[in-house]
Amino acid sequence: MTALLLIAKLSLVALSMLVATWASRRFGHRIGGLVAGFPIIMAPLIGLLLIDLSAQRVADICLATIGNLTACVAHIVTMAWLVSRFNWWQSLLGATLVFFTVSGLNWALPVPGGVLVALGLLSGLVAPRLMPDGLPATGGVPIPPIEFALRLVAAVGVTAWVMLMAGDAPAFASAMLLTYPINGSILPAFTRALYGAGQTRSLLKGFARGMRGLTLFLLATGFALPVLGAGLGYTAGVGCAAAYAIWLWRAGLRQNDVA
To answer: How far is it between the farthest Cα atoms of the chain?
Structure first.
């Protein structure tokens, strides 16, 4: 199953990068970030875990992942503020340091799991409000094929490195590595380097809004699996994320700024 999960995650990261890049080319960086924040990677991985693990065990994983969303939110919020003053690698380095600091505190401090879950939910909901505004939506971005290829190589390469490192790391370090926001790092790094700080802020704010879909999926799945079982519980989680996506679309986010 470990090899299957590695192959699955690499394939899903590639798919997520493909869909997010298409969305940026069609609608702009803001919508590309929004798509990247959704559980395109997480939802199929949770489905794979249900093949070998009990519904209760997978539910615990979902809730533990919510508990570390505070670190993911800290990462993208920090990067959104840093890109206005620093270049792409300096901003990424600062955001990564903040991620591992917050994630490490989550593990080191004697905080009850329920409190961590509550903080993760709260951070996921308020994240877009903590970010500076980006540029107004201007439509699609002509992302050339070479840039897409480089994005893909970077995302898959970082994912492979993270998963291989996680396999040999202690449990707490492994958990931190596996929740590192890869799309929330690769996409803004390329956007900052090639399109400027304003577009990067737009992308990250969209990403934060999309992460609400991830939060809903994890929350619904985590609570539904022990009650409804694997099939219906997983369906409930996917349904909540899909309902949120439909609500966003009907709210007209293609025309209105993400807030």
So the answer is: 49
In this structure, are residues 114 and 201 in contact, taking their beta carbons and an 8 Å threshold?
Answer: no
pTM metric for this prediction: 0.89
* Closest C-alpha among 63, 64, 69, 61 to residue 45: 61
Distance separating alpha carbons of residues 151 and 187, to the nearest angstrom: 7
Number of structural domains (the chain) is 1
Cβ-based neighbours of 120, under 8 Å, separated by 6 or more: 66, 67, 68, 69, 70, 215
Q: Is residue 256 part of a domain?
A: no
Does residue 102 lie in a domain region?
A: yes
Question: Does residue 167 form part of some domain?
Answer: yes
What is the C-alpha separation between 52 and 245, in angstroms, rounded? 29
From the first residue on, what is the mean pLDDT of each consecutive set of 10 residues in the chain (259 residues)? 74 90 90 91 88 88 88 96 96 96 88 88 91 79 90 91 73 73 94 94 94 94 93 94 89 52
Burial of 18 (0-12, 13-18, 19+ CB in 10 A): middle
Query: Is residue 259 included in any domain, yes or no?
Result: no
Range of the domain at 163: 2-251
> 106: closest CA among 121, 125, 120?
120
Summarize pLDDT for 176-208 with one digit per residue, the tens.
777 889 999 999 999 999 999 999 999 999 999
- The Cα 210–Cα 52 span in angstroms is 29
